[in-house]
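re: ur question from earlier - yeah i can do the single chain one, its not a big deal. heres the input i used so u can compare w yours
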Amino acid sequence: MIQIIPSTQAQGDRVIEIWRDAVDATHDFLTPEDRRAIDEEVCGFLSQAPLALAQSAAGEILGFMLVSPTDTGAHMDALFIDPAAHGQGLGRALVNHALARHDAITTDVNAQNIGAVKFYDAMGFIETGRSDRDDQRRPYPLIHLSRQKVLANRP
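and the output i got, formated as tokens:
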């Protein structure tokens, strides 16, 4: 069983390890220079960020999500799963955790990350736009996505 818990600084090294392993497994489109630059940026803040962590029943941290509140809901800034745990429902659990707390979630996904694009499609996210560059103006196209909370019908 997966439990979603808030992060602490003590889990910072594990979070960075998950990020690096996940990027290495899914972002083969990055140039080595960009991969190193992004690693420096991420290591500078990720271990300090308020994350939601996916923890196994054995207590192992297997994934994380960073969500920032917005005027209309929240923006998912990051969602990364240990590649050894892909396909086990961790990403789904983290997204559902965010949807339980926010009426809507937006996120951006690298267009070249086909697995992530398929995941968000399966999770019911809809495309709201595209950019030909990422947020740091690197030549990695982004797909902008949105997902509304599905409310139960009320009598």
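Helices lie at 12-26, 32-45, 90-101, 114-122. not sure if urs matches, ping me
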